[in-house]
Amino acid sequence: MKIIVEKTYERMCRMAANILSAQIILKADSVLGLATGSTPCGIYKQLIDWYNKGDVDFSKVRTVNLDEYVGLAPEHDQSYRYYMDQNLFDHVNIDKANTHVPNGLAKDAQAECLRYDKLIQSLGGTDVQLLGIGLNGHIGFNEPSDVFDTGTHCVDLTESTIEANSRFFEREEDVPRQAITMGIKTIMQAKKIVLAINGEKKREIAKNALYGPVTPLCPASVLQLHPDVTVVLDEAAAGLLG
Ligand SMILES: N[C@@H]1[C@@H](O)[C@H](O)[C@@H](COP(=O)(O)O)O[C@@H]1O
């Protein structure tokens, strides 16, 4: 595990964006695994900036997103498809047909999960997977549990995640209770992983995930076992790493 600490959130984002853009430069049709949440916003902003300066070309890039809420249409302003369009895809020269997010409206969620895993395989697997981390150690929407979940699957969100994500919704009742997420196996199959962690609130979980025991009670801890992980943190999140 490579751990890089940057002074500010902006510097952290620049570092993560550097890894993603280097990947695209080295392999124009890279498959990027992308994440949502507040953490990656600045990373996408940086990529858009470099695109506008002509430094990075998305025309052949393919993307697979980690997760999507069950029951939200792509045009719902809190769906992860909407987030990706707003925060990245609408601002760069990516072909939208090459961007993939699980379908939160699928009638048969099970079939959708299988379709999504097959899709990732058919693209040749993920070259770089960008991850954020939830306050309880979740990655994607893999919540703490007794076992590491395998492929893409449907999950019941925990109360703490619903509460954390309620900041994006008008009322807590509006937060979906379920999501479709890549599983730990899907995530671990990525050739390279970049985990971004910022803010004082994530201090404790950063320490547990990076230096604590590998356990499904802290899903991000499994990343300690991946051969090519880079963790980028701002100083606020790195405060307990020693
Ligand atoms: N499903 C997403 C995760 O992919 C994300 O990493 C996490 C942390 O979000 P934030 O970056 O806003 O703290 O929240 C959500 O639940």
From TrEMBL:
Catalysis performed (reactions): alpha-D-glucosamine 6-phosphate + H2O = beta-D-fructose 6-phosphate + NH4(+)
Name this protein carries in UniProt: Glucosamine-6-phosphate deaminase
UniProt keywords, alphabetically: Carbohydrate metabolism, Hydrolase
GO molecular function, one term: glucosamine-6-phosphate deaminase activity
Annotated ranges, domain Glucosamine/galactosamine-6-phosphate isomerase: 10-224
Gene (UniProt): nagB
HAMAP family: GlcN6P_deamin
BP-aspect Gene Ontology terms: carbohydrate metabolic process; glucosamine catabolic process; N-acetylglucosamine catabolic process; N-acetylneuraminate catabolic process
Record function comment: Catalyzes the reversible isomerization-deamination of glucosamine 6-phosphate (GlcN6P) to form fructose 6-phosphate (Fru6P) and ammonium ion.
Record family assignment: Belongs to the glucosamine/galactosamine-6-phosphate isomerase family. NagB subfamily.
Active-site residues annotated for this sequence: 67, 136, 138, 143
Cellular compartments per GO CC: cytoplasm
E.C. designation(s): 3.5.99.6
